[in-house]
Amino acid sequence: MKVMFTLLRKEFRQIFRDPAILRIIFAVPIVQFIILPFAANYEFSNIKLVLVDHDHSSFSQQLINKITGSNYFLLVDNCSNYHEAYHYIENDQADLILEIPSGFERNLVRENQEKVLIAVNAINGIKANLGGNYLTQIIADFNRDISVQLTAPETSTDGGIELTMTPWFNPLENYKIFIVPGILGLLVTVISSLLAIFIVKEKEIGTIEQINVTPIKKHQFVLGKLIPFWIIGNIVFTIGLTLGYFIYHITPVGSLFVLYVFLAAYLLAMLGLSLFISTFCQTQQQAMFVGFFFLIIFILLSGLFTPIESMPVWAQWITKFNPVGYMIQVMRMVILKGSDLKDILPQLSTVSLMAAVLLSLSVWNYRKTS
Questions:
Q1: What is the model's pTM?
Q2: Percent of the chain as helix, strand, coil, to the nearest 5
Q3: In angstroms, rounded to a whole number, what is the distance separating the alpha carbons of residues 184 and 81?
Q4: Taking phi first (over 0 means left), then psi (-120 to 50 degrees means alpha), and beta for anything else, what does residue 158 get?
Q5: In this predicted model, what pLDDT tens digit does every residue of 292-329 receive, in sequence order?
Q6: What phi and psi, each to the nearest 5 degrees, are found at residue 358?
Q7: I want to staple 368 with a disulfide (CB 3.0 to 4.6 A). Which of 117, 212, 254, 345 is the partner?
Q8: What DSSP letter does each residue of 172-216 carry, written as one string?
Q9: C-alpha dihedral sign at 18, 22, 24, 25
């Protein structure tokens, strides 16, 4: 214990000696946590729309007013033909084209049906799909309103399917409640990835050689490097939860104890990966590039921005070995759904196994002599 206490005191002094390191560890994640949820906005507005109205009737004008009166669309131009409107999409000046055919009102009145064309600029796939869905919903609402107007009251009948939707765990469907827990998990991940850079930095300046000539055992060296960052990760996570409460008004529905139990195992897994990377790298540049390689893959396949179920089968298999995916999943389960320790037991067991394997590999691969 005396050896471990000496190692830990040395590590903490080394971490807190450099003000730049403190800013990287604490200030940068806090700023990112405040900014990113507002920037990563899933609620699109000002979708640029170009109209082509061949009918110029009262019904077409009602539809246009209904669309432009919403908070989603920004009318760029009202063109006379489709070819003219296409130039806006071609030059990335518009996201959607709505073409209303001639005879729009006449066909609605006589046949109670008509077709309109929606052309989508699919370069930005997410914005295009959501914009198309918004426009489709508005047109569907307009169609129902017109149907009520054209149907005589005495011929209308009750019945049909009445749809009631209840959004569980996020009643207001606020995207921040959905994305903030995931971003907090990512920030803790970034903190743990810094460990490899710090160890390799010691290799470069030669201070690690002074430790290697001492009778300190390999597992003591690994624990001495791991525990300070494990503590710092918990502190950053606590700060993030506090900011989430005061800034985004997110209160965990589940137990904080369950969150910290999983966090303890998760940090051990990620720190074990960083330690393992540091045993192979000789320069900080190598450690940064290798860590960045894994970090990008972990983030993109974590399920934070795209559902894992929508990925190809081979990508879904890769996610089974992605600790970040388990972290984001558990964060949402506990914070939003109130899951208990029994509910997250599969994720906890998997991450704990990853931690045991990675830490064992780190101790095994670390060489006190070169």
A1: 0.73
A2: 65, 5, 25
A3: 49
A4: beta
A5: 888 888 988 888 877 787 788 888 899 999 999 999 99
A6: -65, -40
A7: 212
A8: T--HHHHHHHHHHHHHHHHHHHHHHHHHHHHHHHTHHHHHHTSS-
A9: positive
